[in-house]
Write a structure and sequence with these properties.
Layout lengths: L30 H66 L4 H28 L6 H14 L2 H8 L4 H17 L6 H32 L6 H25 L1 H12 L2 H18 L18 H95 L17 H58 L3 H28 L11 E2 H9 L8 E4 L5 E2 L1 H20 L7 E7 L5 E6 L7 H12 L6 H5 L1 H13 L2 E6 L5 E7 L10
Parallel strand pairs: 2-4
Antiparallel strand pairs: 1-3, 4-5, 5-7, 6-7
């Protein structure tokens, strides 16, 4: 058995042409991520630039720390240089005059102890110098470390040959010069050079002191080379003193000049050196210098002490300048630290600002977009279908005002929301017009059905009259056939009423036997003689549903007869069910249906679709479904035990007249 209503499935969605977009494609990104990327790109660039600035500041801070450490190490070197010079001069004095050994033994020992302490500190500084100082400083430190390791041998030979001390002093001065080049600050570099010049000047004063002491004891060894070395040393000293002002600034140079000029010892020292140079230079070849090279009136101790005073003056200026270097290093470090902190704070503030801005902008866009999407889906999935369903079922042409989407603002999102509201209104308007058109068509169906039914009823009455007076059996059989055809025409006319959603005009007031209902249904189908009725005679249905039930059973029986072999019977049976209802079954052995077709047919029986052209072509399912829905009857198709189908009609207890079989 089949309903004669082949159900076509939903149209397959049209494949989109072209290549599918990757999920990493920009078009597939969520709006939130697009906004994040839009703001993140310049932010990352700013953070990178700011971060590089912070890294540079941190590197500069490290450089300034290294410069400060170098300044401290350079100060230790200068202290060691001065102490080594004092030890050398004392040892050289003893070497020039054995008579002074007893007098200078204790001072020499004390000065050696000072040198040992300062040397230990310098060795510790040399061990701390690594590759971060640069290769030149590392090489100079290695040379100084190597010379310091020979301090014991230098001391052993120092009384007879002070040049060994000079080698140590030269290596320390070279290291001091290299440490002064670590800074990138021009002012610091200039001050470092001034400190190197002061250290060199002190060294030259010390060397001239011991040279003149040794020459004063043994004038026979004073030759032109010795005089030249002395003059050169003095010239270097004066040059170094002038370099201080050139490198550290005129103010420092002026302070140094005033400090030296204020000391009469400096004047005496310079005069003594000039006198000694004059005496040594003016000596004829082979003539012995009889005058004291130091002074006729000043003793050697005074010469030694006066030079020490000059060295102390230079050391005082050196100390002040070293304090300026340290202060400058601290200022630069503090400035870079402040810059790094400011840059880091600005980066953090920028990130926080960007984060807040991103969240605010994203929320201002994503929130209305989400609301637009939610309400659009609600409209498309629920509100609009409900309105359309209401219009189709009730046939109302007017509905309430369309509730707009709750998206405020005049931006593009708001414009899209307003556009969607307009589309919603147009859809509702079109649905209303469609409902109005369906109402007009239904009215046409009703009018045509009423007219047709009137003619059919008159035709049936006329045929009944002819049947009563006809004696010819053949003609009477023909009249029966005409009567049967007229009855089928009346049922088809009533189908139009069902399509239009109207109830038939024929109504019964008294309950009807279920078996009579089935027999009345058989009178409206062709081939009724093939139907076997096995319905319980004790079951009755309400009169209000009797005619519709006749119509329903007639459609099912006609369908079973039509789609089963001409010699195959159709069986109509009934049985009571628990609760007071009844089950009416129409079984055939004809053409069956696939599982998909069966599921679709049962769906249409449970939920009759809206009337359209397809329904008019498959009127059986629609009419049965509408009639069943009208009275709360459940109709379901299932496969038979062998071939064919079984249509099961479940009559609820409310339709059973006596409530029992």
């Amino acid at each position: 058995m089949t309903t004669g209503n082949s159900v076509s499935g939903p149209a397959a969605p049209r494949e989109r042409g072209g290549r599918s977009l990757s999920r990493f494609g920009l078009r597939n990104w969520r709006v939130r991520w697009r906004l994040t990327a839009l703001i993140l790109v310049p932010t990352v660039a700013a953070v990178v630039l700011g971060g590089s600035r912070v890294v540079e500041s941190v590197q500069s801070i490290s450089d300034y720390d290294r410069t400060a450490a170098a300044a401290e190490q350079a100060g230790h070197i200068r202290d060691l240089l001065q102490a080594v010079g004092l030890e050398r001069d004392t040892a050289g004095w003893i070497g020039a005059s054995r008579s002074m050994k007893k007098t200078l033994a204790t001072p020499l020992a004390q000065r050696k102890d000072v040198v040992d302490g300062l040397a230990a500190r310098v060795r510790s500084d040399l061990d701390a110098i690594d590759d971060s100082y640069g290769p030149r400083v590392v090489r100079a430190a290695d040379r100084a470390k190597s010379v310091l390791a020979r301090l014991s041998r230098i001391r052993a030979e120092g009384q007879t040959n002070t040049a060994e001390y000079d080698t140590l002093a030269d290596s320390l001065l070279a290291l001091h010069d290299e440490l002064g080049l670590l800074s990138d600050d021009s002012l610091t570099v200039g001050q470092f050079r001034a400190l190197s010049a002061l250290a060199a000047a002190k060294e030259e004063v010390s060397r001239q002191r011991v040279q003149l002491l040794q020459a004063s004891y043994d004038t026979a060894k004073v030759d032109a080379k010795t005089v030249e070395q002395f003059i050169t040393s003095n010239a270097r000293q004066l040059s170094d003193i002038s370099t201080v002002g050139a490198e550290a600034g005129p103010e420092v140079g002026l302070d140094l000049s005033k400090s030296l000029a204020a000391k009469p010892e400096y004047v005496n020292v310079q005069l003594t050196k000039s006198r000694a140079i004059t005496l040594a230079s003016g000596r004829a070849p082979g003539v012995r210098i009889t005058d004291n090279l130091i002074s006729a009136r000043a003793s050697r101790q005074e010469w030694f002490d006066q030079n020490q005073i000059v060295i102390d003056v230079l050391h005082g200026v050196e100390k002040d300048l070293a304090d300026k270097v340290n202060l400058r290093s601290q200022e630069l470090r503090s400035s870079e630290t402040r810059n790094a902190i400011i840059a880091a704070v600005m980066i953090v503030a920028l990130l926080l600002l960007v984060l807040l801005l991103t969240v605010a902008i994203a929320r201002s866009m994503v929130t209305p977009l989400r609301r637009l999407r939610t309400e659009a889906l609600e409209i498309a999935g629920f509100r609009l279908p409900d309105v359309v369903r209401q219009l189709r079922v009730n046939g109302e042409a007017q509905v309430g005002e369309v509730r707009p989407i709750a998206v405020e603002g005049n931006d593009e999102i708001g414009e899209v929301a307003r556009a969607f509201d307009q589309v919603h209104r147009q859809a509702v308007r079109l649905a209303g017009e469609e409902a109005e058109l369906r109402g007009n068509i239904s009215s046409m169906f009703v009018n045509l059905s009423r007219r047709t039914q009137t003619l059919v009823e008159r035709q049936i009455s006329l045929i009944d009259g002819l049947e009563k007076g006809e004696q010819d059996g053949a003609r009477l059989a023909d009249l029966f056939k005409l009567d049967h055809l007229a009855t089928r025409m009346r049922r088809n006319s009533e189908n139009l009423l069902v399509l239009a959603g109207h109830e038939a005009t024929r109504r019964r007031s008294q309950p009807a036997k279920l078996v009579d209902v089935v027999r009345a249904a058989l009178s409206e189908v062709e081939g009724y003689e093939r139907v076997q009725v096995r319905v319980n005679r004790g079951t009755s249905v309400l009169g209000s549903c009797a005619n519709d039930l006749v119509h329903l059973v007639a459609e099912l029986v006609e369908n079973a007869i039509q789609f089963s072999p001409s010699n195959a019977p159709v069986v109509v049976t009934s049985s009571p069910i628990e609760g007071g209802g009844a089950l009416l079954s129409v079984s055939d052995t004809g053409i069956s249906m696939t599982e998909e077709e069966l599921a679709e047919a049962n769906r249409r029986l449970a939920e009759p679709p809206v009337v359209d052209v397809s329904v008019s072509r498959r009127m059986g399912l629609f009419v049965v479904g509408r009639l069943a829905l009208r009275h709360g009857i459940r109709v379901q198709l299932r496969k038979g035990d062998g071939a064919g189908l079984i249509a099961m009609v479940l009559l609820p207890p409310a339709l059973i007249a006596d409530g029992r079989e």
